[in-house]
TrEMBL record:
It comes from Marmoricola endophyticus. Gene3D superfamilies: Medium-chain alcohol dehydrogenases, catalytic domain (3.90.180.10), NAD(P)-binding Rossmann-like Domain (3.40.50.720). Pfam families: ADH_N (PF08240), ADH_zinc_N (PF00107). PROSITE patterns: QOR_ZETA_CRYSTAL. GO terms for molecular function: oxidoreductase activity; zinc ion binding. This is NADPH:quinone oxidoreductase.
């Protein structure tokens, strides 16, 4: 079978699709014939040895996958449509995955869509519903709102009854955010004044939550966008730099900065990801969860896809097909 393998930590150019032996299902595993694989930011970091999870070389990339069950016991039967979410290793043509990492796929969701849901939408649910304590009717500002995680945050926030504002760098990305469900957008290249003023105007007032995927030098400006008892959720640093904050700013409006580390939390709690998945299924069936996808590419183009992600050229979710 083919697999997207990392044999050296030299980045996207060193990722190779090679033939490896097919796995067999062990105790508590589900054997899946994989149709599609979703590429996420951790795949890029894993290829360079910069992620908090550091598998022993060589290893397969791939967090999200979708396909059909070949062999299983218990809940699943041969032919069932499923999604798979793992810290890595899903980028294989045949996959032996732990049963707790396998989720039933509603008929309304295609394999391409399913490969775009997994990690991003479970992270978004954890961020907003759990760490952010989002209440219906609140307003959420999402940074990096045209990327895979950004669009997931917009859609899950909508599914939880929030108003959403997408912060993006360009007009092209603003269109992606609006298509994903943003009620309003703020475009950094079009700003004529302070970010706070633009956000407050777009949101109709200060926001309750900032879901920050980007990090970087605007972090203090994000804090200024929050209303009283607002929450700034730290999800990542795709902008390349890790910001610092003077904690006296947290006193001004009684605001919080909360870390969102979904992977280590969810994957160490048996049944937790399934609880999250079941919470998202009604949103999938309603069409609220509908990941914006770029062109679906052959798996052999994984290296080029990771380079585009590193250069922040990706709009929506990158999906590869076996």
């Amino acid at each position: 079978m083919r697999a997207a393998m990392v044999s050296s930590l030299d980045g996207p150019d060193a990722v190779e699709v090679v033939d490896v032996p097919e796995p067999t299902a062990g105790e508590g595993q589900v054997l899946v014939d994989v149709q599609t694989v979703g590429i996420a930011w951790p795949d890029l970091l894993l290829s360079k040895g910069e992620y908090q999870v550091r598998p022993e070389l060589p290893f397969a990339l791939g967090v999200d996958a979708a396909g059909t069950v070949r062999e299983a016991s218990g809940e699943y039967a041969a032919g069932d449509r499923v999604a798979v979410v793992q810290s890595h290793g899903s980028g294989c043509e045949v996959l032996a995955a732990p049963s707790e990492a396998v989720f039933p796929l509603p008929d309304e969701v295609s394999f391409e869509q399913a490969a775009g849901i997994g990690m991003n939408y479970l992270t978004a649910h954890f961020a907003l519903a759990v760490r952010g304590s989002l209440a219906e009717g609140e307003t959420v500002l999402v940074t990096g709102a045209a990327g895979g995680l950004g669009t997931a945050l917009l859609q899950v926030a909508k599914g939880l009854g929030a108003r959403t504002v997408g912060l993006v760098s360009t007009a092209e990305k603003a269109e992606v955010a609006r298509t994903a469900g943003a009620d309003a957008t703020v475009v950094l290249e079009e700003l004529d004044g302070r970010l706070k003023d633009a956000v407050v105007q777009a949101a109709g007032g200060p926001v309750d939550i900032v879901a920050d995927v980007v990090g970087g030098q605007l972090f203090t400006d994000y804090l200024r966008c929050l209303g009283e008892e607002g929450r700034l959720l730290v999800l990542g640093f795709t902008g390349g730099s890790i910001p610092e904050v003077k904690v006296n700013r947290l006193l001004l409006n009684n605001v919080d900065v909360r870390g969102v580390g979904w992977g280590a939390y969810a994957m160490s709690r048996r049944g937790y990801m399934r609880w999250q998945w079941d919470a998202l299924v009604p949103m999938m069936r309603a069409g609220t969860v509908d990941p914006p996808l770029g062109p679906v590419r052959p798996v052999e183009e994984i290296g080029a896809a990771l380079v585009e992600m590193a250069e922040r050229k990706v709009l929506g979710k990158t999906v590869l097909r076996f």
